[in-house]
Design brief:
The structure holds 2 protein chains of 2 kinds. Chain A is mostly beta strands. Chain A contains no helices and 11 strands. In chain A, strand 4 and strand 5 form a beta hairpin. The N and C termini of chain A lie far apart (32 Å). Chain B is globular. Chain B is built from no helices and 11 strands. The model of chain B has no long low-confidence stretch (mean pLDDT 91). Chain B is mainly β. The chains are: A mainly beta, B mainly beta. Chains A and B meet through strand 5 of A and strand 4, strand 5 and strand 9 of B.
């Protein structure tokens, strides 16, 4: 496997379900991100982890709970979601540090539908 | 296949002058374009977007121009300020497809 992988690719869940999204990066990067992409809206940054510590949380509702057990893996735990949470959830990784471009490499995304 | 290209990895501009960042794309299906700014050790910040039905969108010091026939997008910052020093990414998509990002241009504003 190369690059950034995400599972599952598609997820349909009810508002009372609990599910998790998984992301894995094979690039040796030290930072990972969760984004929410809704149609015709800018990408919304949800969480940033650098060296496995959360460095940014843009006021995301508590029904979204991230977990970063190591520098290669990132999870997004979902519970009691709302229909408006239906979107494409993207994971990305980058190498943070001086003298690097911070270019982000994105996974294919998980298309989430909340019924 | 890089569908969104930023051919200049870096750009230096004198404070107070205009910064012009360029982006080219190959997928004629793209109908929504965005610019993001990223400081080191932070997540990217949305700056400005434009729909393919327009050719210009302005927000304060930032203006994005879209030339659909040339498949070219540019971001103008005027006047440039030291706080504008960052990496700038352009991105594009259509429908509900995933955003495709360019590789970024590092802008340095010289005081």
């Amino acid at each position: 496997e190369t690059g950034v992988t995400q599972t599952p690719r598609h997820l349909v869940m009810g508002m009372t379900n609990k599910k998790s999204l998984k992301c894995e990066q094979h690039l040796g990067h030290n930072a990972m991100y969760w984004y929410k992409q809704s149609a015709k809206k800018p990408l919304e940054l949800m969480f940033v982890y650098s060296l496995e510590e959360r460095v940014e949380n843009n006021s995301v509702p508590s029904r979204f709970s991230p977990e970063c057990p190591n520098s290669s893996h990132l999870f997004l735990h979902l519970h009691t979601l709302q229909p408006e949470d239906s979107a494409l959830y993207l994971c990305a990784s980058s190498q943070m540090g001086p003298g690097v471009s911070d270019e982000q490499f994105f996974g294919p995304g998980t298309r989430l539908t909340v019924l | 296949d890089q569908q969104v290209k930023q051919n200049s990895p870096s750009l230096s501009v004198q404070e107070g002058r205009i910064s012009i960042l360029n982006c080219d794309y190959t997928n004629s299906m793209f109908d929504y374009f965005l610019w993001y700014k990223k400081y080191p050790a932070e997540g990217p910040t949305f700056l400005i977007s434009i729909s393919s039905i327009k050719d210009k969108n302005e927000d304060g010091r930032f203006t994005v121009f879209l030339n659909k026939s040339a498949k070219h997008l540019s971001l103008h910052i005027v006047p440039s300020q030291p706080g504008d020093s960052a990496v700038y990414f352009c991105a594009a998509n259509f429908g509900n497809e995933k955003l495709t990002f360019g590789t970024g241009t590092r802008l340095t504003i010289i005081p």
